[in-house]
Amino acid sequence: MKLGFALPQFHRQAFEVARTAEFAAAVEEAGAASLWVGDRNLAAVNPVVGYGGRGTTIPEELNPAADPFVLLGVAASATRRVLLGSHVIVAPLYPPVQLARSLTTVDLISGGRLLPGFGIGWSPEEFQAAGLDFARRGARMDELLDALDVLWTEDPAGYEGAQLSVPAHHSPLKPARRPRPPFYLGALSERALRRVARRGDGWLPLCVVPSYVDIDGLLAQRALLDRLTREAGRDPEVIDTVLRVNINAGTATSLVADTVRRVHERTGIDHFMIDSMYDADSVDAALALAQDVLKRVDQG
């Protein structure tokens, strides 16, 4: 199994962001396979839509949020082996040229270790702040993936769609990974899973230990994704899975490790991204948690 961990980006860990390089190097040395960021441009005071598209509240842990691209760049320069992923970048918020440039830079610094994970977002206020139509974010995501394909593989590069327009321009700087970094996509609904089936190289589901671990649901989602992928004329085997594991405050690391092993045994998922922002209130605590989980999973 491959275990990855979130970089110090949110909640109290965000205030120790200067220790990102230290954390990244130490977690890599402890045996981690990957390091991850999320994305939160803002957490509205009076949200119309709540966290994950449900309710009307956002966890206070998301109020302080460090920049994901900067953190990935720092981690890239501080490590030599681990993959560097995003679970997830709210991709429709960003102009395609700027998104491609930021991720290309990270991939080059890391020598081709980038795993860009994208989602369409759930916060209308984030889209309002960016001057974008929240209702059209799905269509914008589809065009953004098309635009990234072009920007990462062609020179000169340009794109023209209903949502996005990129003038033809010189584009010699490409990612280290060829023909391009893989597209990992967050998806829960059937509509979102169809996008993964058509366009994704990887799928990013999630669970929360211990409050939401639905292994039967994961198996059902993967079965649906496999069917949709075959209907799209693709082989389901080409779509990788990385499961995000959020940890409720006060959860024992033994339970986290046991849950990872149990999910792996039943689903075959072999790459897990563990996020401690709700549980670890400092970089030292996050590092200790990562080291303990790695040790327990390895011994198990």
Automatic annotation (TrEMBL):
What would you give as a GO molecular function for this chain, any one? alkanesulfonate monooxygenase activity
Q: Where is the Luciferase-like domain?
A: 7-251
**Annotated GO biological process:** alkanesulfonate catabolic process
**Alphabetical keyword list:** Flavoprotein, FMN, Monooxygenase, Oxidoreductase, Transferase
Which InterPro entries does its entry note?
Answer: Lucif-like_OxRdtase_Rv2161c, Luciferase-like_dom, Luciferase-like_sf, SsuD_RutA_monooxygenase
Q: Do you know which PANTHER family this protein is assigned to? A: ALKANESULFONATE MONOOXYGENASE, ALKANESULFONATE MONOOXYGENASE-RELATED
Q: What is this protein called?
A: Hydride transferase
Species name for this entry? Streptomyces laurentii
